[in-house]
Amino acid sequence: MPGREALMRWSHPTRGPVSPAQFIPVAEDCGLILPIGEWVLREACKQSQARMDVGLVIGTMAVSISAMEFWAEGRPIS
Known about the structure:
This protein is an alpha+beta fold. The chain has 3 helices and 4 strands; from the N terminus they run βββααβα. Helices cover 45% and strands 15% of the residues.
């Protein structure tokens, strides 16, 4: 069974698609990467559950996280 990967993309209203290579370092520098990472993981889980609720077999899913999330001691995913 093939796996899936949760990917975050940003479509800027005037610039169009912005590469994760551009927006992730900015999010890390300004302290937004932790709430973004929490949101991404929560959404990936919600979408997987929604698929299972309608009888789809989802298999495995990969979610990449920032190294900063590993170092965020005592900060549980909500």
